[in-house]
Amino acid sequence: CRLRPFVELAAKVRRHRVAIEQALRSGSSNAMAESTNTKIRVLTRVAFGFRSPQPLIAMAMLSVGGACPQLPGRNRPSTLERPPV
What backbone torsions phi and psi does residue 76 show, to the nearest 5 degrees? Predict the structure, then answer.
């Protein structure tokens, strides 16, 4: 008794076996890409009222792009400074 869904699953596994084995060996996944996509999707909802795409792009760069500009009037704590005891 060969159930059709399992026959289809076996065919897919056979077809993608090399890629599956490589993914298992390397231990990598698409988790970081999915996380970034989700964050950008949320930013798109937040930026709904913006009149142009430039503010959305700037928000995305600040949020997920790793940009960390020095803001006027704010001092970033140095890694060498210790908080007062």
Answer: -80, 135
> Closest Cα partner for 40 from 68, 67, 65, 19?
65
Domain boundaries, the chain: 4-64
- Give the C-alpha separation, 30 to 20, whole Å: 13
Structural tokens at position 45: 């909802």
Q: Angle between the 17-26 and 4-15 helix axes, to the nearest 10 degrees?
A: 70
pLDDT tens by residue, 1-51: 689 999 999 999 999 999 999 989 998 888 888 998 999 999 999 888 889
pTM for the predicted model, two decimal places:
0.50
